[in-house]
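So, can you check this one?
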Amino acid sequence: MYRDGKLECAVATTTASAVAADDTTVFGVDAPVAGTSRVWSLDLPASCGAPNALFTVAGPAGGVALDAQNVFVTAQGTGGATGTVVKARKDGSAQVSLVQKAQSPGAIVVDQTHVYWSGARGVGRVTKLAACDNEAQCAELFAADAIPGVLAVDDALVYVAIGNDAKGYFVVGRSKTDGSDVKKYASAGRPSAVAAGKAAVFWAVGRRIYGVTK
């Protein structure tokens, strides 16, 4: 980890596949070992070395997101519709599967009331207080006419970087958080990251950063 441009400490993990941080703690998910992925935390700034193991999820973990009290993780299971979206307290307790039978869930973001994730079915949405026994029962923001990738969210809109090599197009899409008012922006190649600012949305393609006003 770096602070003020200097290496402060190295975190002893296996290959981390995603991380997220709040003001005091960094959370991460590791690449799977023996069919499970570890979710961990590391207190800042004093702690270095081995992180705290919180819990494990089945299969590769696609992403991690935080709100004030909870950590949210996507887990891909054993393939097909065996993935889950998991919520737990930041100490690893009170685990609950918000979404089950999800198809390859990957990126995940949260706002004040909802959880959004990308996967083979498109981009899904579920409230933090409810659960979907089957992903097909969850609200769908973007249909799976392409392969959704990374996500971003602000107070009113959800953004997703979409790519489809078979059809030969790449776009960044957005919708209101209720799934209405869908809009897509053309991209010059496969987007690898997307971020929402106050007045514009930005995405990365290779060595270039593109942006457009909201």
Q: What stands out?
A: Residues 17 and 70 are 19 Å apart (CA to CA). The domain at 12-144 is CATH 2.120.10.30 (Neuraminidase). The chain is about 0% helix and 55% strand.
